Amino acid sequence: MAGSFTEPHRGGPAALMRRASVAVLLALLFALAAGLVPAAAPGVPLPAAVAPGVALAADSIEVTTATRYTVEPKAARVHVVVDVTAVNGKPNRVSGGTVTRYFYDGVNLGIQPEARSLHATQDGGGTRVDVAKRKGYRLVTVHFRRNIYFGEVAHVRLAFDLPGGKPRSASDVRVGPAFATFMAWAFGDTGSVRVEVPSSFRVSFSGASLDAAPGQDGLAVYTASTDRPLDWYAWINATNDNALTRDRLTVGGGDQVVIRAWPDDDRWRTRVRTLLRDGVPKLVGLIGLPWPVDGALTVTEVHTPLLEGYAGFYDPATDEITISEDLDELTIVHEASHAWFNASLFSGRWITEGLADEYAARVLRELGRGYPDPKPVKRSAKAAFPLADWPPPAPIKDTASNAREQYGYDASWLVMRGILRAVGLSGMREVFAAAAAGTVAYRGEAPPEHTRLPNDWRRFLDLADELGAGPGADDLVKTWVLDEGAAKLLPARAKARSAYADLVRAGGPWAAPVAVRMAMDRWDFNDATTTIELATAILATRDEIAAAAASQGLGPDGSLEAAYQAATSRAELAVLGERAGASLAVLGDVAGAAEAVAAPRDWLTDLGLDGVDPGAGVATARDAWQRGDLDAARVAATDAAARITAAPAAGRTKAMTYATLATVVVLALLLLLLLIVLRRRGTAGRRTRAAAAAAAVAGAGTGPRPEWVRPYATLPPDGPPGEPPGGPTSGDEGADRS
């Protein structure tokens, strides 16, 4: 149902349209004038003046009619007047001395089966009328007051009434203050038709068309003429909206429903009012969507045959329901449910009709009026067809189209009842909410995206499978709905959905990426499968990261999860996969650095660290990794590991440097001490030699003394030697003693 398209509801087999064209054809086969007396051969030759006449069949009589139909609402009838002009066109036959004269003594007309109160006149006087019932019509014989011979003309008038039948009666005629309908026929060889309807009525036609003509006395006039009366009929429908009853209901939260019924059908008005008053709130609760009509929903009673084989129609363009007079409770609630179930929600006719039937049945059950079931139907039935190929409604004119429509309704209802049992009422509420909002079936953590699909069977199937309580729609749709071509889409979908389900399970709290979900939504299963593989690889790396991080007492910052879920393309997922790999690698660097720092250290390593704590670098790396700053984490971890690795060598170098410095210092001290000692010894020698020289000078005046005696002596700083030095050797003899 899209735009102004009317959505019908079928009736049962008894609701098959009374096929007007067939009835007309049968009736009008007898509408030509015919003689009542069988043809007879002349007797013995007689003078022409006294030769007997021969009654003729209808071959040579020309019948012209002018028929006037006047709708009389107050009398609840259509008054019909047929003016017949019959001309005998059969010449006399002369044979020898005999003249055969041909005559007609009456005319036959086939009129509507509802005709009553027949009366005929000729030239202002009454004439005899005989009536015989036939299937689909009445055969009326209007007798001429005298026989008509060649060239003679008879003018007769037949008047009768088409009384309006009671609601739900077998009659096809309805005439009341608010509504009138009947079938107009033409008669004779050629004929004109005039229809007079009160001008307060709005008139429409089906079958033949009529032209508006000037009217009088408050009548609207429509005329037509035909030279093929056997093929001519017009179904006249006249509605006086102002005369319809108008019951306004307030349902639910103030929503309005206006019920417009015939004033003479209180039973229909009461039944519809009660069902809608109680049923519409039930529909709101079961469907889960608010009342969708902006303004008042109008429900109008209509004569059943006018629905051309159906029991009701819903027009979403005008929010108007027309329901037959037949008081079928399922139909009444069914049509009300089309306020929701129309092309604005789902476009497939099998979806909307199946939902309308099943939800109407559930409402009737909640109201204690039983739980109707679909009629048994087989997929192998002669009238069967894939429900996705069900065409829009069209007039039901024969048993084949009736069987096809009946199959469509019954099979759709059967399928939808099975889907509801699998999905559940709460699941269907989710389906309807998503369909109304236009959002995807495959959901993430963020508000759902808008779908790329039209609201056809694919979208319905996705929503039912994803948002329902359990599987079950696929097999029903494959069996009953799809043709072979469409069914070929299902294996690829099933494979992709299996991979998608695995991805969702593996993801746990991580919802599937946008790229995956949108590929599934638009039924691009090749893209979906490839994208799922990329996403699955990222999840595997995520799990490795989680395990490695847990072993170190770390936790990811969540940026990888957010980026994974928000990825809208395979390219983004590929980059994200590289990022996840880099995160795992950096985490390994941090772990390696932490392990190296935590290992036992000797004094050379501590010496090489030069007072720097490498654990601070590891802490920096850990903190940076948890923030998602991989570059900073890598630099800090690498620096900490490098420091701890280089520390032993640096310690050895530093130790050697310190040893060398110590050695140099020791050697320098020793050299300094030596220099001091040598200096002191040099000073003492000089003093000794000076004393000896002084003694020599002195001895030169006093005479000989021991060589070691000096006139002036001073003890050395370290005290007197243990023994006096030896005397001068012979080598001293040459010393300068002066």
Q: If you had to describe this structure to a student in words, what would you say it looks like?
A:
The chain is of the alpha+beta class and 738 residues long. Among the domains are: 31-241, Immunoglobulin-like, CATH 2.60.40; 244-487, Neutral Protease Domain 2 (Neutral Protease, domain 2). It is built from 17 helices and 23 strands. It has helices at residues 20-28, 266-287, 329-337, 349-366, 399-423, 425-437, 457-467, 473-480, 484-487, 489-507, 514-521, 525-551, 559-566, 570-598, 603-609, 614-626, 630-702; strands at residues 7-10, 53-55, 61-72, 77-88, 93-95, 98-111, 116-122, 125-127, 129-134, 137-149, 153-163, 174-175, 179-185, 190-198, 202-207, 211-213, 219-226, 233-239, 245-251, 255-261, 296-302, 310-315, 320-324. The strands form four sheets. Strands 8-7-11-4-3-14-17-16 form an eight-stranded mixed β-sheet, with no helix packed on it. A six-stranded mixed β-sheet has the order 1-22-23-21-20-19. A hairpin with a 4-residue loop joins strand 22 and strand 23 (320-324). Helix 2 (266-287) crosses helix 4 and helix 15 crosses helix 17 (630-702).
Fraction in helix: 40-55%
CATH uppermost class of the domain at 244-487: Mainly Alpha
CATH topology of the domain at 244-487: Neutral Protease, domain 2
Main sheet overview = 8 strands, mixed
Produce the secondary structure layout.
Layout: E1 7-10, H1 20-28, E2 53-55, E3 61-72, E4 77-88, E5 93-95, E6 98-111, E7 116-122, E8 125-127, E9 129-134, E10 137-149, E11 153-163, E12 174-175, E13 179-185, E14 190-198, E15 202-207, E16 211-213, E17 219-226, E18 233-239, E19 245-251, E20 255-261, H2 266-287, E21 296-302, E22 310-315, E23 320-324, H3 329-337, H4 349-366, H5 399-423, H6 425-437, H7 457-467, H8 473-480, H9 484-487, H10 489-507, H11 514-521, H12 525-551, H13 559-566, H14 570-598, H15 603-609, H16 614-626, H17 630-702
Parallel strand pairs: 2-6, 3-14, 20-21, 21-23
Antiparallel strand pairs: 1-22, 3-4, 4-11, 5-6, 6-10, 7-8, 7-11, 9-10, 12-13, 13-18, 14-17, 15-18, 16-17, 19-20, 22-23
